[in-house]
């Protein structure tokens, strides 16, 4: 193998590979006539990236420790690599007056296989991918205590698409009856689409879903990520049962307010949030007040709202869970419904789309 590499392009690619694989120890380099690709596999994730700016004179492949290859490229613009045997690769700087040369010792070659091995794959076309991304953006809540990964449950059928996400503190559900597809269900880790989009870089890509992994690829990258091993249908059903039980109870208060104003207040309030200290929400007349007082300080704000049902009241809740739910809404107005001693829930809907959000009251 003999090739000239642009170190800036190679370092950028290595950083992307390590980000996906949680800093994989080893990297596999494959030099073909078309150019260089770098691949690795760790933590159940595999990735292969094509690298621009490399000239391949003789094809070949090798595996090396990431720290070693990064170290020899540091502060260098171009290097020539020459592999004469399977144990080492020699290098030297290109251009200038530098006499920078050396040799790195390789590790046994690791072939990273990303191509789908499953026979029964769920293949998503571009329209389905867009629909999944849109739906997941409405339900992708996060663990406020960073103690767990909250999977995204997705169910597709001839009657539409549903998605849900929940933990012990809050829940999000959304459906779209326009998004019809072949019946299929699966659960994704919450960062799946973010990882894929960071590699796709606004370009189109294809996706296939197997029994335990998800595949994504275009001409620049190949990616294999693990699916969440959870009961998707039970996840969807649990969200639907909870919604039904909540709707059977008449809310104590129904309040309409500007989403942007409420979100701004919550962003200010969480600045003094302390574990175990609740957000106090008070309704008096048509004024809705938010107050949080902790060892870090005190924040109070209020806004005028439209009261659709209920009288003056006071509620307590966790500010982070409410802020997280509101961050998923796209509407200008938010309809807050309070059931005393139980939960706050929010609904948005039009003819074909419906979303439901809820968190517990303290």
Overview of the molecule:
With 362 residues, the chain is α+β, with helices and mostly antiparallel strands. The chain has 3 domains: 2-105, DNA Polymerase III, Chain A, domain 2; 122-236, DNA Polymerase III, Chain A, domain 2; 249-360, DNA Polymerase III, Chain A, domain 2, CATH 3.10.150. Helix content is 22%, strand content 44%. The chain contains 7 helices and 26 strands. It has helices spanning 7-20, 66-73, 126-139, 192-200, 232-247, 259-269, 319-326; strands spanning 2-6, 26-32, 35-42, 45-51, 55-58, 60-65, 78-85, 88-93, 101-105, 122-124, 152-157, 160-166, 170-176, 184-188, 206-209, 213-217, 221-226, 253-258, 279-284, 287-294, 297-304, 306-309, 313-317, 333-339, 343-349, 353-360. Strands 14-11-12-13-26-25-24-18-22 form a 9-stranded antiparallel β-sheet, sandwiched between helices. Strands 6-2-3-4-17-16-15-10 form an 8-stranded antiparallel β-sheet. A 5-stranded antiparallel β-sheet has the order 5-1-7-8-9. Strand 11 (152-157) and strand 12 (160-166) form a beta hairpin. Helix 6 (259-269) packs antiparallel against helix 7 (319-326). The longest helix is centred in the middle third of the chain and has 16 residues, at 232-247. The mean pLDDT is 90.
């Amino acid at each position: 193998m003999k090739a000239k590499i642009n170190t800036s392009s190679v370092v950028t690619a290595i950083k992307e590979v390590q980000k996906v694989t949680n800093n994989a120890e080893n990297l596999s380099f494959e030099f073909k006539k078309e150019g260089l690709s770098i691949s690795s596999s760790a933590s159940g994730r595999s990735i292969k990236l094509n690298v621009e700016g490399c000239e391949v004179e003789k094809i070949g492949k090798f595996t090396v420790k990431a720290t070693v290859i990064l170290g020899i490229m540091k502060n260098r613009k171009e290097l020539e690599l020459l592999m004469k045997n399977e144990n080492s690769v020699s290098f030297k700087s290109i251009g200038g007056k530098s006499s920078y040369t050396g040799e790195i010792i390789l590790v046994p070659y690791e072939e990273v296989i990303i191509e789908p091995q499953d026979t029964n794959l769920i293949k998503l076309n571009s329209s389905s991918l867009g629909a999944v991304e849109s739906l997941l953006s409405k339900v992708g809540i996060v663990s406020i205590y960073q103690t767990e990964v909250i999977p995204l449950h997705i169910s597709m059928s001839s009657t539409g698409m549903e998605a849900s996400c929940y933990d012990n503190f809050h829940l999000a559900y959304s459906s779209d009856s326009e998004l019809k597809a072949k019946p299929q269900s699966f659960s994704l880790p919450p960062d799946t689409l973010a990882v894929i989009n960071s590699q796709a870089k606004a370009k189109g890509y294809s996706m296939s879903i197997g029994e335990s992994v998800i595949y994504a690829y275009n001409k620049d990258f190949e990616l294999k990520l693990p699916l969440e091993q959870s009961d998707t249908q039970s996840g969807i059903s649990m969200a639907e049962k909870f919604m039904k039980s909540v709707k059977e109870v008449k809310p104590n208060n129904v309040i309409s307010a500007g989403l942007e104003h409420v979100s701004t207040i919550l962003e200010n309030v969480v600045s003094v949030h302390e574990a175990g200290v609740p957000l106090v929400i008070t309704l008096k007349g048509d004024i809705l007040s938010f107050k949080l007082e902790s060892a870090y300080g005190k924040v109070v704000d209020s806004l005028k709202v439209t009261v659709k049902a209920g009288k003056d009241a006071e509620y307590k809740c966790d500010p982070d869970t409410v802020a997280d739910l509101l961050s998923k809404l796209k509407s200008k107005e938010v309809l807050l419904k309070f059931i005393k001693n139980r939960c706050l829930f929010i609904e948005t809907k039009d003819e074909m789309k419906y979303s439901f959000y809820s968190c517990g009251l303290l």
